[in-house]
C-alpha cells in the first residue's frame, strides 16, 4: 500500500501545482517533493532488507489476461526510490533563482516525471514496468522541448524517437515472454524468472533488452542522442535525465536482463562487457577534449554509466552492489555538477571553459562546494565515488583481468577531465566574464549542502545503503548463477 | 437487426425533413435518430446469436459491439458537422440521409451470414460514400476524388463479386456455415483450387475497401479531396465495418485453410505498414498524412487477422474503437483549425496550420496531442493497448517476425505524429482564439476522455462479447 502512495503522491502534487497557477507553483511543488521524501524515509524506517518484496499492492488490470497493476519494494528498488525522492526536491529547489515561463506546467511535469520514475523502480509486473518506462519519457521530452535551448526541437526529437525505438524492442520481448508463461499466462516479473527458455531465444531476448536499456543509459554505440540532449535541455531536465532517468537503464539490466536470460548473459556477456568498457574509455577521452562544461559532464556521465553496466554484466555481488552504490553516488554528483554549471552560466552567461577563469577569487564558497562534489566524482577515497568505483572495478577485474585493467583507466582519465574542468573555470587569471560574480545565495546553498553531506556519508559509511540492497542482490544472483 | 430497419426508415424521414423551412431542426433530429438506432442496437444484447432474413444476417454480441462502435462514431461525426450551415450550397438533408443509409450498409457488412448480404452491405456503403466524397461540388479535387473512388471502387466490387461466384462454384453455397463445412471436410480431402482463387479475389475486394497495400492508391487522393467531415466518416466507419467483415469471413468460413491464407495476409500487412508509414513521413499536408496513417492502421489490424488467435477478436474491436476515437478527435480539430486558417480561400490543411495552436487554444492542442499520442501508440492511451492486443494475438500464434517489423514501423509513426504536437506546442504561430460550439466541444472532450480512460483501464470491454 505504501508503494502505491509513493507513486500517487507526486501525481497528486503535480496536479495541485498545475491548478494553483504560476505564482505559487514553485513552493507547492517543493512541498510536494518534500512530502514524497518524507514518505520515502518513513518507508525506509519500516523496511526490512531480508524480507524480500514489501509494501506491495496488486490490482487486476486485465484480469483474464493475468496482467495486473502490481508494485512493491525490495532492497534494490528502495535504494533507487530513495535516490529519486532525495533528488526531486533538490532539483526543484535548484530552480528557485530562475523564472520559467508557464511555470505551473514546468513544475508539474517534474513531479509527474518523478512519479513515473518511482513507478519504474517499484513495478513488479512486467507490463506495468514497460508502461512507466515509457511514461517517464513524455514529461522529460516536454521539459526539454519547451524550455530547452536553441536547437531543442531537433535534438529532443531525436532523443524521443531513439529511446522509444529501444523500448519497443523490450515490449516485443516482454510479449514473447508473457506467452511463454504457463497456463492462462501472467506478466509478473517473478514468473518470467522461472521460465526455462532455450539458449537461442534467450539470445534474442538478451539483445532486445540490451538495446532498450543501452539506449536509455546510454552505452556505446547508442549514445549519440545523449550529449546534445543534455546540453540543450534546461538544467532541471538534464538533472532528471542524468541523475535519475539514466538509472532506469541500469535498473532494467539488473531487474530484467540478468535473471531472465542467464544463458544469454553467458553467451553474450563478454561482448556487452566489451561495449561497456569501450564506452568508459571513449567517453572519458571525448570529455577531455570538451570546451563546453555541460557537454563535458554529459560525456563524463556516459563514461561512468559504462562502468556501472560493466559491473552489472560481471554478475557478481561486488559488481551489483557496486552498481547500486554508484547509482546513488553518480546521481548525487551529477546533479551537483550540473547545478554548479548552471550557477556559473546564469552569472557569466557562458559555459565555455575558454572564457572562464578565476572564479575562486570572487566566489570562495562556490569553489569549495564545487571541489567537494568534483572529488566525489573522481572517486577520491572517503567520498561517495570511491566506494562504487572500487567495487565495480574489482568485479570487472574478477571477470577478466585485461578488461579490468582497461576499465581502471577511468580513474586516471576521470581525474584528468574533472580537474581540468575545475582548473580552467575556477583558477587562473580572472576572466572578463567573471566580473561582478556573486557568491552562493541561500537557496543555492540549501541545494548544495545536502548533496555534499551525502558525498561524505556514502564515502565514509557506505554500509547504510549497501545493507539495504545486499539481501536482494544476493537473492537475484542465485537466479543468474543457476 | 433493429438498427437496419430503424436507420432505413429514419433515413427516408430525414429526406422529408429537408423540405421543412427550418434548417435548425435537422441536426438535432439526426442525432436523435442515431441515438434511437444505438439504443435499438443494444436492445438485442446478450440475446443472440439470432438469425434474420432467411438466415442471411446474424446478430451476436460481436456484431452488436461493432455496430456500437460504428453508430457511436457516426453520432460523434454528425455532432461535429454543425449542420453544414456555413456552406450555402450544401444540402444537409441529403448528406445526413446518405450517411444514415451508408450506416445500414456498414451494419450489414458487420453481421452478414451470407455472401450476398456482404455484397449488398459493401455496395450500399460504397455508393453512399462515392456521392458524399464528391459533395463539395464546386471543388475540382472533391470531384476528382469522387470519380477516382467510384471507378476504382467499382472494379474492386467486380473482383469481389467474381470471387464470390467462384466460391459458390467450389462450395455450392453462399452461406458462411456451409462454406465452413465444405472447407473443413471436402476441401481437406481433395483441395479445390477454384476455392483458393475465389477466396483470394474476395479478399482483394475487401482489402481494397480497407485501403491495404497494394490496393491503397486511391486512399490519399480521396481522403484529401473529400470534405473533411466525410473523410472522417470514411476513415472510421468504412474501416471498422471492413475489418469486422474480414474477421467474420475468415474466422467463420476459412479457418480450415488457415495455412493457405495466413501468409498472404501477413505479407500484405507488412507491405501496408511499410507503405503507410513511409508514405506518411514525406507529407506536408496533415490531411494527407492522416490518409497514410489510415493505411498504416489497416496494416496493424491485418496483423491481428493474420494470427486469428484467441485475442484477435478483442484486438480488432479494441483497435477499431481506439482508432475511431482518435481519428474523430484529430479531424475534428483539423476542421476547426483549417477553417480558421485559409490560403487563398482554401482551408489550410498543412502541418504549418497548427503552428502555435497551444498559445490561445490550449484545449484544442491538448485534444490533438492525446489523439496523436494514441495513434502513435504511446502508453496510457487507448492506442497503446490496441497495438498491444494486436501484437499479443500474433505472439499467441507464435508469429514474432510480423510484430517485430510492425514495431519498427511504429517508431516511424512517432515521427510524423509528433510533427503536429511540435507544431502546436513548440512553434510560433498566429492562430487566434477559435470559437468552438458547445456540441463540438463535448465531442472532442469525450473522445479525449475515452482515449485516456481506455488507456488506463483497457479491461473495461473485456469479456463482454
Would you give an account of this structure?
The complex is a heterodimer of chains A (482) and B (465). Helix content of chain A is 76%, strand content 3%. Chain A contains 20 helices and two strands. In chain B, strands 1-2 form a two-stranded antiparallel ribbon. In chain B, strands 3-4 form a two-stranded antiparallel sheet. Chain B is an all-alpha fold. Chain B is globular and about 70 Å long. The mean pLDDT of chain B is 90. In chain B, helix 2 packs antiparallel against helix 3 (61-79). Chain A binds chain B through residues 60-65, 127, 130-131, 134-135, 138, 142, 145-146, 152-153, 157, 160-161, 164-165, 168-169, 171-172, 175-176, 178-179, and chain B through 311, 373, 378-380, 388, 391-392, 395-396, 398, 400, 403-404, 407-408, 410-411, 414-415, 418, 422, 425-427, 457-459, 462-463.
Topology:
The complex is a heterodimer of chains A (482) and B (465).
Chain A: H1 2-20, H2 25-46, E1 54-62, E2 67-73, H3 75-93, H4 103-122, H5 126-135, H6 137-147, H7 152-180, H8 189-193, H9 199-216, H10 226-232, H11 235-260, H12 262-289, H13 293-314, H14 317-348, H15 359-362, H16 364-377, H17 384-399, H18 401-426, H19 442-460, H20 463-480
Antiparallel strand pairs in A: 1-2
Chain B: H1 2-17, H2 26-42, E1 50-52, E2 57-59, H3 61-79, H4 92-111, H5 115-133, H6 140-171, H7 176-184, H8 186-189, H9 193-209, H10 218-225, H11 228-253, H12 258-281, H13 286-307, H14 312-340, E3 342-343, E4 346-347, H15 357-360, H16 362-376, H17 382-396, H18 401-426, H19 438-456
Antiparallel strand pairs in B: 1-2, 3-4
Amino acid at each position: 500500500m505504501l508503494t502505491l502512495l509513493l507513486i500517487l503522491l507526486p501525481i497528486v502534487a503535480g496536479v495541485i501545482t498545475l491548478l494553483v497557477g504560476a505564482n505559487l507553483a514553485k513552493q507547492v511543488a517543493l512541498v510536494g517533493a518534500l512530502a514524497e521524501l518524507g514518505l520515502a524515509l518513513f518507508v525506509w524506517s519500516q523496511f526490512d532488507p531480508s524480507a524480500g518484496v514489501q509494501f506491495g499492492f496488486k490490482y487486476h488490470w486485465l484480469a483474464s489476461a493475468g496482467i495486473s497493476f502490481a508494485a512493491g519494494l525490495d532492497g534494490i528498488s528502495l535504494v533507487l526510490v530513495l535516490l529519486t525522492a532525495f533528488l526531486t526536491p533538490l532539483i526543484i529547489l535548484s530552480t528557485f533563482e530562475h523564472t520559467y515561463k508557464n511555470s505551473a506546467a514546468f513544475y508539474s511535469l517534474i513531479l509527474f516525471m518523478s512519479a513515473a520514475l518511482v513507478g519504474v523502480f517499484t513495478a513488479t509486473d512486467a507490463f506495468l514496468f514497460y508502461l512507466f518506462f515509457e511514461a517517464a519519457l513524455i514529461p522529460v521530452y516536454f521539459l526539454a522541448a519547451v524550455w530547452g535551448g536553441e536547437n531543442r526541437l531537433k535534438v529532443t526529437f531525436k532523443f524521443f524517437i531513439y529511446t522509444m525505438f529501444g523500448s519497443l524492442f523490450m515490449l516485443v520481448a516482454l510479449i514473447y515472454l508473457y506467452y511463454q508463461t504457463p497456463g492462462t499466462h501472467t506478466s509478473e516479473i517473478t514468473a518470467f524468472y522461472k521460465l526455462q527458455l532455450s539458449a537461442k531465444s534467450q539470445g534474442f531476448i538478451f539483445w532486445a533488452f540490451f538495446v532498450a536499456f543501452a539506449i536509455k543509459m546510454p552505452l556505446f554505440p547508442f549514445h549519440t542522442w545523449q550529449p546534445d540532449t543534455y546540453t540543450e535541455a534546461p538544467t532541471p531536465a538534464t538533472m532528471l535525465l542524468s541523475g535519475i532517468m539514466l538509472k532506469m537503464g541500469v535498473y532494467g539490466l539488473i531487474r530484467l536482463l540478468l535473471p531472465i536470460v542467464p544463458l544469454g548473459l553467458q553467451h553474450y556477456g563478454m561482448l556487452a562487457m566489451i561495449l561497456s568498457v569501450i564506452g568508459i574509455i571513449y567517453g572519458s577521452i571525448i570529455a577531455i577534449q570538451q570546451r563546453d562544461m555541460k557537454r563535458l559532464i554529459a560525456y563524463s556521465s556516459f563514461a561512468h554509466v559504462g562502468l556501472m553496466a560493466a559491473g552489472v554484466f560481471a554478475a557478481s555481488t561486488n559488481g551489483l552492489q557496486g552498481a547500486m552504490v554508484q547509482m546513488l553516488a553518480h546521481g548525487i554528483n551529477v546533479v551537483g555538477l550540473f547545478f554548479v554549471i548552471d550557477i556559473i552560466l546564469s552569472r557569466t552567461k557562458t559555459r565555455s571553459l575558454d572564457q572562464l577563469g578565476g572564479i575562486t577569487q570572487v566566489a570562495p564558497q562556490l569553489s569549495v562546494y564545487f571541489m567537494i562534489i568534483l572529488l566525489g566524482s573522481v572517486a577520491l577515497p572517503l567520498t561517495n565515488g570511491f566506494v562504487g568505483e572500487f567495487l565495480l572495478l574489482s568485479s570487472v577485474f574478477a571477470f577478466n583481468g585485461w578488461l579490468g585493467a582497461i576499465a581502471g583507466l577511468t580513474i586516471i582519465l576521470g581525474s584528468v577531465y574533472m580537474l581540468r574542468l575545475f582548473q580552467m573555470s575556477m583558477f587562473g587569471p580572472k576572466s572578463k566574464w567573471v566580473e561582478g560574480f556573486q557568491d552562493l545565495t541561500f537557496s543555492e546553498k540549501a541545494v548544495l549542502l545536502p548533496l555534499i553531506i551525502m558525498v561524505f556519508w556514502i564515502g565514509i559509511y557506505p554500509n547504510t545503503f549497501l545493507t539495504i540492497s545486499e539481501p536482494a542482490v544476493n537473492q537475484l544472483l542465485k537466479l543468474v548463477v543457476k | 437487426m433493429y438498427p437496419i430497419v430503424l436507420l432505413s426508415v429514419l433515413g427516408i424521414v430525414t429526406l422529408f425533413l429537408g423540405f421543412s423551412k427550418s434548417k435548425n431542426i435537422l441536426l438535432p433530429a439526426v442525432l436523435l435518430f442515431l441515438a434511437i438506432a444505438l439504443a435499438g442496437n443494444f436492445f438485442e444484447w446478450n440475446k443472440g446469436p439470432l438469425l434474420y432474413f432467411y438466415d442471411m444476417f446474424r446478430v451476436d454480441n460481436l456484431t452488436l459491439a461493432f455496430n456500437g462502435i460504428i453508430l457511436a462514431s457516426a453520432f460523434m461525426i454528425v455532432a461535429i458537422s454543425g449542420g453544414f450551415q456555413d456552406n450555402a450550397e450544401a444540402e444537409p438533408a441529403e448528406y445526413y440521409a446518405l450517411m444514415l443509409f451508408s450506416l445500414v450498409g456498414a451494419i450489414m457488412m458487420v453481421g452478414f451470414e451470407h455472401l450476398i448480404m456482404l455484397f449488398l452491405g459493401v455496395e450500399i456503403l460504397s455508393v453512399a460514400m462515392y456521392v458524399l466524397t464528391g459533395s463539395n461540388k464546386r471543388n475540382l479535387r472533391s470531384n476528382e476524388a469522387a470519380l477516382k473512388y467510384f471507378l476504382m471502387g467499382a472494379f474492386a466490387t467486380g473482383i469481389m463479386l467474381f470471387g464470390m461466384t467462384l466460391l459458390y462454384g467450389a462450395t455450392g453455397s453462399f452461406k458462411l456455415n456451409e462454406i465452413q463445412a465444405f472447407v473443413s471436410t471436402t476441401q481437406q480431402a481433395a483441395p479445390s483450387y477454384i476455392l483458393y482463387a475465389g477466396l483470394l479475389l474476395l479478399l482483394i475486394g475487401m482489402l481494397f475497401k480497407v485501403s491495404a497495400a497494394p490496393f491503397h492508391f486511391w486512399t490519399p487522393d480521396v481522403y484529401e479531396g473529400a470534405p473533411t467531415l466525410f473523410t472522417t466518416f470514411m476513415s472510421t466507419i468504412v474501416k471498422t465495418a471492413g475489418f469486422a467483415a474480414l474477421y467474420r469471413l475468415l474466422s467463420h468460413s476459412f479457418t480450415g485453410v488457415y495455412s493457405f491464407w495466413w501468409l498472404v495476409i501477413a505479407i500484405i500487412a507488412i507491405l501496408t505498414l511499410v507503405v503507410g508509414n513511409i508514405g506518411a513521413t514525406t507529407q506536408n499536408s496533415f490531411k494527407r498524412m492522416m490518409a497514410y496513417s489510415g493505411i498504416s492502421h489497416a496494416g496493424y489490424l491485418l496483423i491481428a487477422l493474420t494470427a486469428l488467435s484467441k485475442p484477435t477478436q478483442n484486438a480488432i474491436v479494441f483497435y477499431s474503437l481506439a482508432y475511431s476515437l482518435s481519428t474523430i478527435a484529430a479531424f475534428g480539430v483539423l476542421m476547426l483549425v483549417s477553417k480558421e486558417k485559409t490560403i487563398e480561400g482554401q482551408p489550410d490543411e498543412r502541418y504549418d496550420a497548427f503552428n502555435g495552436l497551444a498559445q490561445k487554444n490550449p484545449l484544442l492542442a491538448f485534444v490533438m496531442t492525446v489523439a496523436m499520442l494514441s495513434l502513435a501508440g504511446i502508453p496510457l492511451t487507448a492506442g497503446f493497448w490496441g497495438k498491444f492486443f494486436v501484437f499479443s494475438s500474433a505472439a499467441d500464434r507464435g508469429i514474432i517476425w510480423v510484430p517485430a517489423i510492425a514495431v519498427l514501423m511504429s517508431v516511424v509513426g512517432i515521427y510524423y505524429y509528433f510533427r503536429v504536437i511540435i507544431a502546436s506546442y513548440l512553434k510560433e504561430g498566429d492562430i487566434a482564439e477559435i470559437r468552438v460550439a458547445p456540441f463540438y466541444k463535448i465531442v472532442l472532450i469525450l473522445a479525449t476522455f475515452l482515449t485516456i480512460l481506455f488507456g488506463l483501464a483497457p479491461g473495461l470491454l473485456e469479456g463482454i462479447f
